[in-house]
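Work Package 3 (structural annotation) set out to generate three-dimensional models for the target panel prioritized at the project kickoff. During this period the team completed the workflow that converts sequence records into discrete structure tokens, so that structures can be stored uniformly alongside our sequence database. As a representative example, we reproduce one entry of 362 residues exactly as it appears in the project archive.
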Amino acid sequence: MNLLPPNVSPSPVFLPEELVAEVLSFLPVKTLLRLRCVSKLWKSLISHPTFVRQHLNRSAGNADLTLVSSFLGLIYFKTFPLLDPITMTLPNDPYHQLNDIDGFNIVGSCNGLLCLLGFSYIGHKDMYLRFWNPATRIISEKLGYFSDHTDPYHPRNLTFGYDDSTDTYKVVCFIPNTREVRVFNLGHNAWRNIQNSPLDHYYKMNVVNLNGRVIWLEIHNDTGLGPIISLDLSTETHTRFLPPQGFDEGLLIESKLSVLNDCLCFSHDLKLTELVIWQMKEFGVEDSWTQIFKISYDILDINEIFLLLPLCLLEKNDTLILTDKFLSQFVLYNWRDDRAKSIHKSWPLNSKIYVESLVWYG
């Protein structure tokens, strides 16, 4: 029932800009790109760095886990619905397609940006980088050319990270069998040498990214487990510290680093019977290593017991998601019930966790 006098229009409702931003931050990127056309105010709001970061933080807390991988020069996405853990492929729409005459290998995924290592199908000697946001469909030019005689599907050690102190994205290259480190600073668009690593690099390094640091574990066939090395992307300097001490090291070659809930983790085999996972509660403080899981292989009920790697920790569901390094299966371990469930789904090697965002550089 209209209680207003005749010929009197209701007053327009004005929402505070903060509330509008809060509501819009829940929407997917594809919708937000369309909403930029609503008004100049909305276009300015959606493009503002504060909103871009707000939307990114919201996307990172999404209930689904999306993996991105490359195979034979093509790029694939798969979503892992954590509330109903059955992997499925994202729809084939322009937002998740990249048509190019060259092939690509994914170096890394960071804040919704993918760093791609490009190569020509003929020769495979001239390599380059491209940066792509699949959600906004923006891709950079070919940058950072360099020559490489290694197999492009298993290239030299490259990793992609973000320096929050300067809002800069960087690609780090560890030259195998040397201590040489090169950095490509996105924006300067050039490779440069930085401080050498304290120890020699080897092929197929287990590198993780955590809060503006690039971290890897030294493992040597002759001397066993070495220190953990951390490269600060802000200062471009190295530090090193020891992994957890006082355990049966078991099969050292399968000791791995990972990141769970913004903390560095170290996992290893224990006497061929259990998978043990440690968490560093305070980064760089060796005394803060805390054992958080010891899981029997009998419970996990899988074949490749030494290849498991923690992928995601769901505290609300009391569930730890693990995967083998071939990504042929996922394991959901419920620590409250001490039970596990395996989901067998073949998926290409070297998958990265992908979070949709509006992020771009420059």
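The first strand starts at residue 64 and ends at 71.
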